[in-house]
Every structure is written in structure tokens, then in C-alpha cells.
């Protein structure tokens, strides 16, 4: 079972489409289910109307998801329960450090591990991360390893403003929804060991991961939402969809340019092989 989990902070762009198509084809080519989750746990960052716009774009490009749409804003009780289970095992601590205090640190230095360094101020809840290497085999990028403690230190699970962190929400949601295969951008590759570390502490299953290259501008800058945006014009859907198929390693025949969107999806589903996706961290967009 796969999933696509966009953040409603703006319209979908070409990079988002690329990731969604990869996830969709991976699930459908194995006759699996594909879920849609709106990751709006960070409500202060949400752009009004963005979620509705994302759904319209996905529908215009022919995506069909299974079941209802899950929204993180409705799942706070699940996150609170997971956090409480960690607290009861003394695996968390309260941290009073602000971003400004830590801006010169490459990793969290453990300042508040014993107690908050400043009293009477809002605190974040951090996970006690112990030294040890997390290793997993990515279906595209191969073997990846990271000592989470050395790389980032004690990670935040609930922010000072009492918003649950993405790390906790995504781990809890993937397990609760029964997601078994995650396909997403390589910009999240280094975040994956942190998720696996938390999965292990919570006794949750580890999905199979595949990180597709991040699409970049010709100057190697990451695609911005203000550039190369996905248009809702039906006349542009098929050409962009076929271009994404090609970037995922499919050899698109010229005759497919005259197909319907449904036929294009059927063609790609029958031929998609994740082994053919470029094994790089980024791919330049040149068209």
C-alpha cells in the first residue's frame, strides 16, 4: 500500500507531480492501494484554499485514490497517545532552547537533557536519541546509513507552540494507515533514519522506502513553487504527464501523445519498473 502526502502550503508543482506519479505507479503496478493524506499538522503554515487546489490538480491529472482523504489536523489524539507512551518510558524531555540559541549548532547539543535551561518559558518536547547507526536499503538509492544522534541529536516531537512535529505525525500516520511502501523525494532521504529510529521505539512496522531524484532547475536549484507550476489546463495535462513518465525511466512512444489520460496511465502502469528510475539525488528539468 502506497500513499501521497502533500503539504497544503501552495499549489502542486512539477516536482510534486513527479513524486506523486512515481508513488502511484509503484502501487498500481503491483495492484496495490494508493492513499491520499493531507499533511496539515502545521496549521499556521497552511495556505487557504491550497488543499482544495491540490485535490483539483490530482483529479485533473487522472489520479484515483482509495478510501477517504486523511487530514492530519484531525489526528491529534493519535499523536498525543504516541508521545505519552514515550514520556512514560522516560524517552523524552522538555527543552527551552529557542532557534536563535541553537542557530550556530550543527546538531542539538543536549542542553536541556537534565532539565530545561530556562524556567518559565514555553518548552518543546524532544526525543532522547542515543548513539547507534540506523541502516536501511532504499529501493532506488541503495544502502543508506546514519547515526541519528551524531547527525542531528535529540529531535523535536512537539514544538514550543504545541504543534506536533512532522516526524511524529508521519510515523504514526503511516503505521495507522497500514502503509507498506513509501515513494518520495530524495530531499527526505536523510530524514528517513530518524523516522526508522522512532518507529523502532514505538514498536511500529518499517515500510519499504524509495527516494526518487529531486527535480531541479538547469542551475541545480530545487524547483520553486513559483516556477514550472503544474497547470490545470486540460490541454497541458497529457504532455506533462508523459514528460514525467520519461523522467521516471519509461520510454514513451510518440504515438502516446494522441492517447487519453486514462490510456496513458494504463500504458505506464503496465510498464513501470522502479529499478529504471534514475539512481541519483537530483535530475535537471530541461524542457
The best one-word shape is: elongated
The helical percent reads 25-40%
Q: In the CATH hierarchy, what is the superfamily? A: HUPs
Number of strands: 12
Question: What can be said about the biggest beta sheet?
Answer: 3 strands, parallel
Task: Enumerate how many helices there are, as a single number.
Answer: 9
Mean pLDDT: 93
Specify the CATH class.
Alpha Beta
The CATH topology label is: Rossmann fold
Residue runs with pLDDT of under 50 for 5 or more positions: 228-232
What's the number of structural domains? 1
Task: Explain what you see.
There is one protein chain. By secondary structure, the chain is an alpha/beta fold. It has helices at residues 14-28, 50-60, 76-88, 99-102, 148-151, 166-176, 192-202, 234-247, 261-271, and strands at residues 2-4, 34-38, 70-71, 92-95, 124-127, 133-138, 142-147, 156-158, 181-185, 208-212, 214-216, 282-284. The strands form 5 sheets. Strands 1-2-3 form a 3-stranded parallel sheet. The protein has a 3-stranded antiparallel sheet with strand order 4-5-8. The radius of gyration is 20 Å and the shape is elongated.
Descriptive labels:
single chain, 287 residues, Rossmann fold, 3-stranded parallel sheet, 17% strand
Question: How are the elements arranged and paired?
Answer:
Blueprint: E1 2-4, H1 14-28, E2 34-38, H2 50-60, E3 70-71, H3 76-88, E4 92-95, H4 99-102, E5 124-127, E6 133-138, E7 142-147, H5 148-151, E8 156-158, H6 166-176, E9 181-185, H7 192-202, E10 208-212, E11 214-216, H8 234-247, H9 261-271, E12 282-284
Helix pairs in contact: 1-8, 3-6, 6-7
Amino acid at each position: 500500500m502506497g500513499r501521497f502526502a502533500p503539504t497544503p502550503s501552495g499549489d502542486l508543482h512539477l516536482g510534486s507531480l513527479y513524486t506523486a506519479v512515481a508513488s502511484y505507479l509503484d502501487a498500481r503496478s503491483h495492484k496495490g492501494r494508493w492513499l491520499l493524506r493531507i499533511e496539515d499538522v502545521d496549521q499556521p503554515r497552511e495556505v487557504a484554499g491550497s488543499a482544495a487546489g491540490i485535490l483539483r490538480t490530482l483529479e485533473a491529472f487522472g489520479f484515483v485514490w482509495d478510501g477517504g482523504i486523511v487530514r492530519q489536523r484531525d489526528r491529534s489524539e493519535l499523536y498525543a497517545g504516541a508521545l505519552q507512551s514515550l514520556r512514560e518510558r522516560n524517552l523524552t524531555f522538555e527543552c527551552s532552547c529557542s532557534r536563535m540559541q541553537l542557530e550556530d549548532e550543527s546538531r542539538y547539543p543536549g542542553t536541556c537533557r537534565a532539565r530545561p535551561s530556562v524556567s518559565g518559558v514555553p518548552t518543546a518536547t524532544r526525543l532522547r536519541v542515543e548513539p547507534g547507526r540506523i541502516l536501511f536499503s532504499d529501493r532506488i538509492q541503495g544502502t543508506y546509513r546514519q547515526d541519528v544522534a551524531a547527525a542531528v541529536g535529540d529531535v523535536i516531537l512537539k514544538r514550543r507552540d504545541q504543534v506536533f512535529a512532522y516526524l511524529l505525525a508521519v510515523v504514526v500516520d503511516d503505521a495507522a494507515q497500514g502503509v507498506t511502501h513509501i515513494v518520495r523525494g530524495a530531499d527526505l532521504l536523510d530524514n528517513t533514519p530518524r523516522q526508522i529510529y522512532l518507529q523502532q521505539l514505538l514498536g511500529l512496522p518499517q515500510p519499504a522506502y524509495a527516494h526518487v531524484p529531486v527535480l531541479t532547475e538547469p542551475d541545480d536549484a530545487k524547483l520553486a513553487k513559483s516556477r514550472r507550476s503544474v497547470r490545470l489546463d486540460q490541454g497541458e495535462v497529457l504532455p506533462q504527464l508523459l514528460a514525467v513518465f520519461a523522467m521516471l525511466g519509461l520510454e514513451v512512444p510518440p504515438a502516446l501523445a494522441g492517447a487519453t489520460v486514462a490510456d496513458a496511465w494504463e500504458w505506464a502502469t503496465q510498464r513501470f519498473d522502479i529499478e529504471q528510475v534514475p539512481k541519483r539525488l537530483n535530475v535537471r528539468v530541461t524542457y
